[in-house]
């Protein structure tokens, strides 16, 4: 590892033999792991590293923690923004669905009113046809009555004329 701060998390565990630990593919001995587990004392130096290395290590750890915290905050913010986006999409789709339902209800109501209007018009036409039918039946009855009277009068006149002609020429 160089002088730059690493954002990679390191975890370690013991293998089957309990003497070598694998750290993300890197094998470490028990003594290295024990040194990593021990809290560092201010007077103690690790393999030639001084207090400056401890300060640098603390600084790097603080930077890594800050980076990790920033990453978690960023992820949380992304989740919140994504949640807000999903909520907006849900609201938008609900509004769209509500508008579509209202349009369909309005169209259905319009069709129902149109059907009622046509039914009333049909009933009105039916009444009008019945009225005309009654009128024409009445006119037909009058004409038949007149025709019968005319036939009767004509027949009587014919009979009278025939009787006169017969009486004159006897």
From TrEMBL:
Superkingdom, according to UniProt?
Eukaryota
Membrane topology label = Lipid-anchor
Example GO BP: inner mitochondrial membrane organization
Instruction: Report whether DNA-binding shows up as a keyword of the record.
Output: no
Q: Where in the cell is it found?
A: Mitochondrion inner membrane
Do you know which Pfam families this protein is assigned to?
A: MIC19_MIC25 (PF05300)
Tell me which UniProt keywords the record has, alphabetically.
Disulfide bond, Lipoprotein, Membrane, Mitochondrion, Mitochondrion inner membrane, Myristate
Q: Where is this region: Disordered?
A: 29-57
- GO CC, alphabetical: MICOS complex
- Check the record and name the PANTHER family matching this protein: COILED-COIL-HELIX-COILED-COIL-HELIX DOMAIN CONTAINING 6 (PTHR21588), MICOS COMPLEX SUBUNIT MIC19 (PTHR21588:SF18)
Q: What is this protein called?
A: MIC19 protein
Source lineage: Eukaryota, Metazoa, Chordata, Craniata, Vertebrata
Write the gene name: Chchd3
